[in-house]
Amino acid sequence: MNKLVIGAAVTVGVVVLAGAAWAWSFRNIETPNYTVRTSDGDFELRDYPKLVLASFDAAGDRGDAVRRAFSPLADYIFAKKRSGEKIAMTAPVTQTPDADNWTVSFIMPAGRTLDDLPDPSGDVTLGEVEPRRMASFRFSGRWTDARFAEASDKLAAWVASQGLTPAGEIEFAYYNDPFVPPFLRRNEVLIEVAR
Fold this sequence. Notes:
This protein is α+β, with helices and mostly antiparallel strands. It has helices spanning 2-26, 62-77, 145-161, and strands at residues 35-40, 43-48, 51-59, 93-98, 101-107, 125-129, 132-139, 171-174, 187-193. Strands 1-2-7-9-8-4-5-3-6 form a nine-stranded antiparallel beta sheet.
């Protein structure tokens, strides 16, 4: 019996430490400064400012595309294959379907512009997204196609129930690295809606 109690205490301690480590590391990562217009449990309607993105297009399924895109994007922000300054990592990493491709994007830190960012190399491109209104659904867990499909269906139903009109494609947002336990991850599906 004592071994069972000790095992349970160790497990709880590891979970608490993992949660504390995640909270500490996440609080140092910049996220977009959006304004929440409506909050309804895990659903939100948000107004985003103009964002500057570094993006990489990859063909194939969602999981393979995000894995292929991550290294070139990380090389860009960490100045691994270019000269000049490093750029701070932000969250989330976004992924948007585009025909048979996926566009994976890192959001550049607030205040950065296309003119003051270093030129990318290879297949990384820089671009801007104008201010927009986004509906979002937040969930935790593993990054599986089934979970994203379920979350997308929930978001579509909520958007319809609010009388909102979709104005773009579903986007997936990953706020944490793969080493964060799935139950502590912040994942979102988002879609632009007409104002």
